[in-house]
Predict the structure.
Amino acid sequence: MSTATIPELETVYPESDGKPMADNTVQWEWMVLIVEELREQFAGQEVFVAGDLLWYPVEGQPRISAAPDAMVVFGRPAGDRRSYLQWMEGGLGPQVVFEVLSHSNTEDELDAKLQFYDVHGVEEYYVIDPYDQLVYRYVRRARRLGAIRKVLGFISPRLGIRFEKIDGELRIFSRSGRQFQTRSEQVHDLNEELQTERRRADALAKQKEQLAAKLRELGIDPDSL
């Protein structure tokens, strides 16, 4: 009697954990701010930056996963991913991850995330609290992620970004010293620059008219010059 061969089932790695990307607009704006600014900072380099993407560190173990609000992988190219399968990425996992707090986060949940990132080799872990305008920092030392107590002026060893608190608001600055800005802040600044240039142009035009009037008083046609 022959025995039928049972086909091996392919492991499925879901592309969604069924959870919302953000609980509110404040959390969402911080997530977008971090991802977009880091993408711009590392544009053209072999650095992969993503937000809310499922990361599977262990092949054949789809239950072992996390979806950081932002993650950075040095040594992997930018581009689209449906999920981040670490064994398909040269074995490289995220070196830096960010989580942005929401009102629904529990202490147990945050402890579990810290443990996950610690176990799976994350070098730097940042927890942004957009409500109290704080950042909690964890950096790998002696093979473990440990909290950094320094409050002001901390610079990420990997990213080179700096965390500051200005007028009571948490701010992040790039390696070049440029402040991370939301799209609305960028549009506002561009509009301010445009208005400044218009005022400068109007002032120059007025000066030109005043000079032309003086030349005419002296009997000189300014158009002939």
Summary: DSSP finds three helices and eleven strands in the chain.
